[in-house]
Amino acid sequence: MSTDDKNRAIAAAILPLVGGAGNLSTVAHCMTRLRLGLHDRSLVQDDALKALPAVMGVVEDDTYQIVLGPGTVARVTPEIEALVAAAPQRTHSAEDLAAQGAALKSAQKAKNATPFKLFLRRIANIFVPLIPALIGCGIIAGLNGLLVNLGWLPGVTPALAAIASGFMALIAVFVGYNTAKEFGGTAILGGAVAAIIVFPGVAKIDAFGQTLSPGQGGVLGALGAAVLAVYVEKWCRRWVPESLDVLVTPTLTVLISGLVTIFGLMFVAGEISQAIGDFADWLLAHAGAGAGLLLGGLFLPLVMLGLHQALIPIHTTLIEQQGYTALLPILAMAGAGQVGAAMAVYLKLPRNGSIRRTIKSALPAGFLGVGEPLIYGVSLPLGRPFITACVGGAAGGAFIGLFSMLGTTVGSTAIGPSGWALFPLLHGNHDLGATLAIYAGGLLTGYLVGFVATYFWGFSQELLAEFNPETEATEAPVAAGNGAPAPTPDPAPQPAKV
Fold first, then answer.
1. CA distance linking residue 416 with residue 370, whole number of Å
2. Which residues are catalytic?
3. What are the distances in angstroms from CA 397 to CA 130, 178, 327, 453?
4. Phi and psi at residue 93, in whole multiples of 5°?
5. Which of 227, 309, 355, 470 has its CB surrounded by the most CB atoms within 10 Å?
6. pTM of the predicted model as reported, rounded to 2 decimal places
């Protein structure tokens, strides 16, 4: 079967299990998850969906999210969209179904729709679409640095440098575009205002007694400028006569927002960005082990809540300033703890075929830093192994943080990948060999501590009895008459509670 046929088959298998094409209001994807808007949640066949070989897990949030893994999700999503487009229009009780779906969706949103979480999700929606370009350009930058250090291909390295740096030089424009789109404004106006930040001509302007520099304020300035542009545009739409709207609204939007950006936001955002960089440097230099312990240990709960994407602006700011983010390798240790915990669960539950199959299928993705399948398919449903996985992540984070305190910083030139997939993006303040060795040591520490903590403290006797009952059958009943143990039937494998 060709790759296209395989992806088409996956889409065809998923669609009826989520209620068919008529039950989908939206279809989208992020790095690992297919995100579906549903009219009627009750039509989804969860158990059958989780049983599909291509499905690593499901997550319920503001959308119904099916974890397919990187690469696969980007190829399956267009196939889902094609099937939805080709399906006949719904003819069954549309109003009743819509009302029922709206009620279910409202009930689900009420659980998680706190103002803080909604704000973080909006910020994540701005930056998540930028991740593929950040990854591609980051890997090219790493390759170029290696070639320069080795003295190879001197005629090619300038071109690679241009390819790797072009996107980062204009990232403020893309952030402004996505911000305006996310907050309900005209996207291109947000990009136009944000473009002021990277325009070389701002070097001729003085603000707050300082001469501005191109790029000052970075992505934070672009985000603020675009949000301001949205509010100015909406104000203009309310007050400008419709006959003049096409001329006056965009002009006033760019003019007012641009002036505030130049004479206010660039300076303020620049100070905030500099403070973020200075604080990160200070934290890792003076309290690296403790900071690594906390960051590595708390990152899995953030992933579980879907809030980890809100850290992207901080990573991006550090990459803009220093060429790499020293926080990402520490946070990546959470995935190492998760892998170690999963391997311990595999050994502790030799009779549970369902959980062991889940672990075998999800471990390759886990080694590459995709943790959702192991979180939602293994550790979180079991309870204690989720906590011991966090312990492993904390240990790995403390390991890398300790070396930061000793003067060797490990960073990443881009965001997105984790686990082994982060190796091509590693960069730091010392030679590449030391950087790779420290990161590898952190991974091994996370694997080992996550495994040991889970193996010895990850299961209560009740949990073992529930998920691996044969382990409790050490005292078999004695058969009458001969003193030999009576045979006990083999119970069916216990499925994982996912």
1. 10
2. 30
3. 26, 32, 9, 16
4. 40, 55
5. 355
6. 0.70
